[in-house]
Amino acid sequence: MSAFLGYLNEKNLSLFTDYYELTMCAAYFDNQNFEPATFDLFIRRLPQNRSYFLFAGLEEALNYLQNIKFTEEQLCYLEKQGFQAGFLDYLRNFRFRGEVWAVPEGTVAFPNEPLLRITAPIIEAQLVETFLLNSINLQTMIATKASRVVEAAQGRAVIEFGLRREPGVDAGMKVARSSYIAGCRGTSNVLAGMVYGIPVFGTMAHSFIMSYPREIDAFRAFLKTFPNKTTLLIDTYDDIAGAEKAAVVAKELAVKGICLGGVRIDSGDLVESSRKIRGILDTQGLQYVKVFASGDLDEYKITELLDKSAPIDSFGVGTKMGTSADRPYLDVIYKLCETQNADKSFSPIMKLSKDKNTLPGRKQVYRFRNDDGTFKKDVITLADEPSEGEAMLVKVMDKGKLMSSLPSLEEIRGFAAKNIAQLPQKYKTVINAPLYPVELSEKLQKLVKVLKQQIAEKEHL
């Protein structure tokens, strides 16, 4: 087993962090700065052609916060990097003891809304930044992309097929889980199927067909082993000829009382091909045999296919979804928003960098709905402000301990489906979707204005 996989299995991920997190924490320690501070994790802006995010990765984030600790091997390594003995002794007994508020996993969210809010001694809150950003970036990015693909499919099944193109073991597992949360029917990733209980799917490769003297011999050989619910890959040589042979073996199966599940096309003009294949199958009385399409698909291509009335029943979507190819990252941010004073009160903090301003203070997000229950608008407020809306951030961890058991993957998936269904359709279009309204409360707007003025005066800006 590789050293990296050993660390994953043992959950020794405390050094999965940027070096500067540790140097800042060492400086905090050296200056005896142990006071609590609050950080927000949020996404600054929407990628092109996105109008919402589907939040994923909370379960992993909370498990990490519960389990983070430093081993002697890790401390020895840090000693070699020049960290002092006193700080290493502090890390030897390190545990996360903070408070965490978060929106539930599977929530539809929007730019600048806190997804996690962490209040903890500043060393603890600072040290966990990199892991949280890394984990939530990937999983929210993929869940958002996958939800767009699922929406584009208009109720047809979408199977996540991207494992061989996803960047590594960890990403492959997270992509399968995040895609399933977003509504994919299953995955080709067998390990994810075993670990997470996600349904697994697969057909066959062109190499299997090519290994037999004739295409129909390959079909019969596969069906001998897997007679039930098989999908035959029919475009190795010619898709129309392949469909005709699939019809022959489907009738052979029918004599035995078994139904062929479907045929798969992976290349060419999928609109024209699917029409001809559907015609062949229907003419042969095989209306129950489904047409399954794959091959460089994403939400844009699926929308185009269905706009042209391609008779495709389900889709296998790989590389472009599993890597979020059109936008392979999100602008996920983790920023300080308040610090504690000597009298134990908290002072709001904000950043004024050009195009990178942050919102000060402890905050809450409230969601308002239309009469039909769909989302109308969100309002970001200070945490102590009353509001008639639905509070989105929920306290999930206190003193480093979970407040309750985490939801199952099926519960998260169901919650995500409900959230996406309640987002008005105009925000789910593949391109040119309007911006969902997110407002700042008057009290928060006033605080921003006052702080900008105070910072300008203090820093002589």
Quick structural gist:
The protein is α/β, with parallel strands linked by helices. It has helices at residues 3-10, 19-30, 58-67, 72-80, 85-92, 122-127, 129-152, 169-181, 190-196, 206-210, 215-225, 239-255, 270-283, 299-307, 319-322, 409-422, 442-458, and strands at 36-43, 53-54, 99-102, 108-109, 116-121, 157-160, 186-187, 231-233, 262-265, 290-293, 314-317, 332-340, 346-348, 363-369, 375-382, 390-391, 394-398, 401-402, 438-440.
Describe what this molecule looks like in 3D.
The protein has 461 residues and is an alpha/beta fold. The chain has 2 domains: 272 residues, Alpha-Beta Barrel (nicotinate phosphoribosyltransferase); 91 residues, TIM Barrel (Alpha-Beta Barrel). Helices cover 41% and strands 18% of the residues. It has 17 helices and 19 strands. The strands form 4 sheets. Strands 13-12-1-5-3-17-18 form a 7-stranded antiparallel sheet. Strand 12 and strand 13 form a beta hairpin. The longest helix is centred in the first third of the chain and has 24 residues. The N terminus is likely disordered.
Strand order of the largest sheet: 13-12-1-5-3-17-18
Can you name the CATH architecture of the largest domain? Alpha-Beta Barrel
Under CATH at level 1, the class of the largest domain stands as Alpha Beta
Mean pLDDT: 93
CATH topology label of the largest domain: nicotinate phosphoribosyltransferase
Provide the low-confidence segments as ranges.
Answer: 1-7
Question: Judging from the principal axes of the Cα atoms, what is the shape?
Answer: elongated
Task: Kindly estimate the percentage of residues that lie in beta strands according to DSSP.
Answer: 15-25%
Largest sheet: 7 strands, antiparallel
- Separation of termini? 55 Å
CATH superfamily of the largest domain: nicotinate phosphoribosyltransferase
Oligomeric form: single chain
Structural class by secondary-structure content: alpha/beta
Number of strand segments: 19
Specify the helix fraction band. 40-55%
Radius of gyration: 26 Å
DSSP summary: helix tally: 17
- In total, the number of domains comes to 2
